[in-house]
Amino acid sequence: MFQPVYLDHNATTPVAPAVLEAMLPFFAQQHGNASSRHEYGRTARRAIDEARQRVAYAVGAHPTEVIFTSGGSEANNLFIKGAAANLPAGIVAISAIEHPCVREPARALRRRGWRLRELAVDAECRLASADFHAALAEQPALISIMLANNETGALQDVAALAAQAAQETRSSVWFHTDAVQALGKVPVDFRSLNAAGVHAMTVSAHKLGGPKGAGALIVDKRVDLAPLIDGGGHERGLRSGTENVPAIVGFGVACEEAVNLLQEAPLWLRQLRGSLERGLVAQGATVFAAHAERLPNTVFFSLPGIDGETLVARLDRAGFAVASGAACSAANPEPSHVLLAMGVAPETARGAVRVSLGRQNTADDVAGFLRALAATVSQLQSLTALHHTVEG
To answer: The pTM is what?
Structure first.
């Protein structure tokens, strides 16, 4: 059966074999509800407790700071809406490059009297220090700045930003970071981030070899959150609902595996990324955020005169699965809001394509992609030239 080369790991990753093996018993033999008091229920509860410890260890947190959710979107909403619910209306500050699951709940707060302050970034997708300083002078109550951008891969120095926020707001701000794309690709340590002034952090299973449907908000217990979902009082009363035991178990094992591979995987991914970028530049591509510190697996690029959506569809037919931006925003035909915030011209932004490598990818995958890209672009350019000739 034909199977394209998968180069879209920032959208989701294949479930690791050890993760699947750990999950399988909890679909059938150990199917108990973790709130039940019989042996089936106690087995499920122990499995959740062990998974919580694994996730906590992977991110440098205490198990009691791990609140399981259905994924990164719910965790981001839980922080933004949950923290705002227990505060007087004020200013919520987010970077202009946040994922929609941070942008949209932040925008929703405006209906409750909050003011949204979007923080500017520079041409390399890094937070603009002058605008951040200006925003802090306005004394925001909530700040959310992502650790790694899902499109460009650019990393923010969240610890330094949180320390600055704590100093300039007299520690009156709750600071959150979306670390969904970072975990498993770069070291993530909530304890050191928390010491610097980060109060909450979002992570997700399916970005690091775990299943879809499991994520977590890692949260300092001093933060007063209102739950999004009321009910039986699960997850310290912050997330009611019968736990997704198989997915949570898989999340724990995925975190453990990702931490164990963190020493070797980034080096290999950087080597692949370097080969890919050299080949792209040789074909005339612009690589976005090329001079920023980035995730080792991510390349976001554009070729002059080539539409990104068209290129993605053609490459798919050629056997290479890539993306034109964030998977969660694939239905939006507008240019990437991340690139527009970086000052990229809309016509260039419309050509953007993201390649996000995984540890299963090889040098042959990269070489094959570059060959397919060159052939596809040549075909598209020929069609464009023919169209212009016919019109002329």
So the answer is: 0.94
